[in-house]
Design a protein that fits this description.
Blueprint lengths: L1 E7 L8 H25 L4 H8 L3 H9 L7 H11 L1 E7 L4
Helix pairs in contact: 2-3, 2-4
């Protein structure tokens, strides 16, 4: 099984809400573009992935584009299971 890795932010009272929102958007876009790349690497269509994840093809399209709002964790997990990948996290290092 492949591991899809993102960087997790440790939230504290000192974090700027706008910076946090920008970080979360960038993290989400990374995850969705990785999912698309993995799907294509496997030679799978959006329709096939949707069928395997018990979702609709338009849901997969929106997820891969990073549009349509934040997906539910259950949606991401269904897609990951269908692609045989996991989502991992690692701490952000301070500069």
């Amino acid at each position: 099984m492949t591991k899809l890795t993102d960087t997790a932010m440790h939230k504290t009272d000192e974090i700027d809400p706008l910076a946090n929102a920008a970080y979360e958007l960038a993290m989400f876009q990374t995850i969705t573009s990785d999912l698309r790349a993995i799907r294509k690497q496997l030679g799978m269509t959006q329709a096939e992935l949707a069928r395997r994840a018990n979702l609709s093809q338009p849901q997969i399209s929106l997820l891969e584009k990073g549009t349509g709002g934040s997906p539910r964790l259950s949606t991401l997990l269904a897609v990951c299971r269908a692609l045989d990948v996991t989502i991992g996290a690692k701490p952000v290092t301070s500069h």
